[in-house]
Amino acid sequence: AKTCVVSMRDLLNVNSLNTKVSTVMHQVPRLGPNNTVSDAATLMHELRTRSLPVYKQRKLLGQVTSPSIVAKLFDSDTQGRISAIMTPTPICMDASDTVSKARETMLKKKIDQLPVTKKGALDGVVTSDQLVFNLIPRADRNVKGDLRTGRYDESLGTFALKDVLTNQITDSLRDVYQNMSKSRANYSVITGTDEIHGIVTFRDFLTMLSKKGSTS
Q1: If 0-12 CB within 10 Å is exposed, 13-18 middle and 19+ buried, where does residue 44 land?
Q2: What is the pLDDT of residues 54-85, one digit of tens each?
Q3: Which residues pair with 26 in a beta bridge?
Q4: Minimal CA–CA distance to 70: which of 189, 179, 167?
Q5: Which of 10, 91, 112, 161 counts the most CB atoms within 10 A of its CB?
Q6: Within 10 A of 208 (CB to CB), how many other CB atoms are there?
Q7: CA nearest neighbour of 207 among 80, 19, 63
């Protein structure tokens, strides 16, 4: 038996609502009740996925997600510097770039967040969730068969979210996690002295657990 899922990145690659789910889904490994948190963190980090199913024999028990794993991590007195886990000098897009370019970059680099800059300064952020929910063509309820198209040619300056979640490079890892959790965001752009130093996602937090697992 195998388990297949459809991720946001899979949906980002869809151009038509008539696309069959079977053509975009991908297979993921199953976890069992005896697997450790480190097992889950390592797999999710390597596969760049946000969740994995948990089975007992053929019965689906539930799923484990990267936010739930990170929440458990911070139940303890977790220490560390942001610079130890963040992705430094992250890929950024200019406000003059098109939405289409951002989409292509996300798919090529297998990332879900792109800071947007204007004259070198942080101006916004675009996420794969945002692209999927705003750009997949939707049928017009009043005109049969009419599809909303053409938004991929818009500039990121008019499309990107301006309310960017950020943390200072001097903040603690707990500060970053609490900021992301409170805002229900899956990223935080790390800044300092008006510069972008890096970006932290839940996948970056998983490196702490996957590394512990590999050295234990």
Answers
A1: buried
A2: 999 989 999 999 999 999 888 776 777 899 89
A3: 5
A4: 179
A5: 112
A6: 18
A7: 80
